[in-house]
Amino acid sequence: MTSIYTKNGRPLRRDGDDLYARSGTHVARLRGDQAFDPRGKYVGTLVGDQLIYRSTQSATVSSPFAKSSRVGSAQANRAATAQWGDEPPIPD
Predict the structure, then answer these.
(1) Contact, 65 vs 32, CB < 8 A?
(2) What would the pLDDT profile of 2-51 be if each residue is shown by its tens digit?
(3) Calpha distance 7→44 (Å, rounded)
(4) What pTM value is reported for the model?
(5) Burial, 42: exposed, middle or buried (Cβ in 10 Å; 0-12, 13-18, 19+)?
(6) What's the burial of 71, exposed, middle or buried (CB within 10 Å: 0-12/13-18/19+)?
(7) Quick one: pLDDT at residue 30?
(8) FRET partner for 74 with CA separation of 20 to 30 A, picked from 11, 12, 19, 85?
(9) What is the spatial distance between Cα 55 and Cα 86, in angstroms, rounded to a whole number?
(10) Domains by residue range for the chain, with CATH
(11) Are 21 and 27 in contact (CB under 8 A)?
């Protein structure tokens, strides 16, 4: 598993194409560089090691998937970025 961060610095764990919140909740799946929630709704674009919501891509949809869970992590936040876009709508 590797770590990525949201625009505001919240940590997410990446396991293959799956993204998990700090609590261990399965919050998104990557399709290329775009992430989609379990219902198939766009939640963000992966830019380096950061997930950033970009409104110009918000109409993009993917197929839904069944959620799984992982053990939570105690990873700390990091500083926010100045990248173009917003904080993705992902629960912590």
Answers:
(1) no
(2) 889 998 889 999 999 999 988 888 899 999 999 999 999 999 999 999 99
(3) 10
(4) 0.73
(5) buried
(6) exposed
(7) 94
(8) 85
(9) 8
(10) 2-57 (2.40.220)
(11) yes
